[in-house]
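ok trying this again, last paste got cut off
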Amino acid sequence: MGGGKTTFTRGLARGLGVKSVVTSPTFTISKVYPAKRGLELHHFDLYRLDDPGIITMELAESLNSEKAVVVIEWAYSVRGVLPDSRLSIHIATESLDKRRITIKYSSIHRTLVDKVKSRSGE
């Protein structure tokens, strides 16, 4: 809670050209935002779900859509639905104004990760 997940998603949305205000879908569970180039940002927040139940079908549909960029907050309950080839981003709060971000990815995301690293100066 308060770790920066929605803030990260807002930055991703801006990069995708989303014009809408991005808010946490904590109570609605999911939101879809139109983006540039025919893409959509599908934002899920599963914090309130002990058992994802029917949301796994909606999630699977999003994950199989070629136009969807999918962000899942609190994804632990749906690990079995997630593809092996995914970016996993863990945001840990170290202090009030400091976060540690860990990114795990498969080899098919290597080019994307290298581009981000080169832009950030790492």
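PB: full thing came through this time. The helical segments are 5-16, 55-64, 110-120.
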